[in-house]
Amino acid sequence: MEEYGDMIVRLAYTYVKQKQAAEDISQEVFISCYNSLDRFQKRAAYKTWLYRITVNKCKDYVNSWSFKHIHYKDYFSSILMRGTSKDSEGLDREEKEIIFKKVLSLPIKLREVIILHYYEELSVNEISSLLAINANTVKTRLHRARKQLKGLFEGDEIDG
């Protein structure tokens, strides 16, 4: 939990966009992991296995009645910005928040590949395995996500 806890919360937050729900999901992930440890087949890295459990728990939560019918705001937390990729080290905190908010505004299928690739630094093949989709699909989603993000930032320049 110490090694992967923040990573799991960050990943869960990208799906549910609520800090408390992300923390609850991360607890469920570690409980599931503990209960299923004897079934871990070591075909993938432990980190990838945790990601897969997290993604599945998040998808279950997003499809749940409570998520669809209970709406409340959550404020962006500094814990979610820790551990971003090397590409964004030079950016200050405010710029990181702006970028991350734009990433969170993407559709879930595009958002998840951006988060996994740039924030969690997984390769295309690792993402493909994790999400159980073709590597070319991952590449396509990354391309579309980058294009949408570019459009979002260009829109800001025009508006403001």
From TrEMBL:
It holds the Pfam family Sigma70_r2. InterPro entries: RNA_pol_sigma-70-like (IPR039425), RNA_pol_sigma-70_dom (IPR014284), RNA_pol_sigma70_r2 (IPR007627), RNA_pol_sigma70_r4_t2 (IPR013249), RNA_pol_sigma_r2 (IPR013325), RNA_pol_sigma_r3/r4-like (IPR013324), WH-like_DNA-bd_sf (IPR036388). GO terms for molecular function: DNA binding; sigma factor activity. GO terms for biological process: DNA-templated transcription initiation. Residues 2-62 form the RNA polymerase sigma-70 region domain. Residues 103-149 form the RNA polymerase sigma factor 70 region 4 type domain. Keywords: Sigma factor, Transcription, Transcription regulation. Gene3D superfamilies: 1.10.1740.10, Winged helix-like DNA-binding domain superfamily/Winged helix DNA-binding domain. Belongs to the sigma-70 factor family. ECF subfamily. This is RNA polymerase subunit sigma. It comes from Peribacillus deserti. The lineage of its organism: Bacteria, Bacillati, Bacillota, Bacilli, Bacillales.
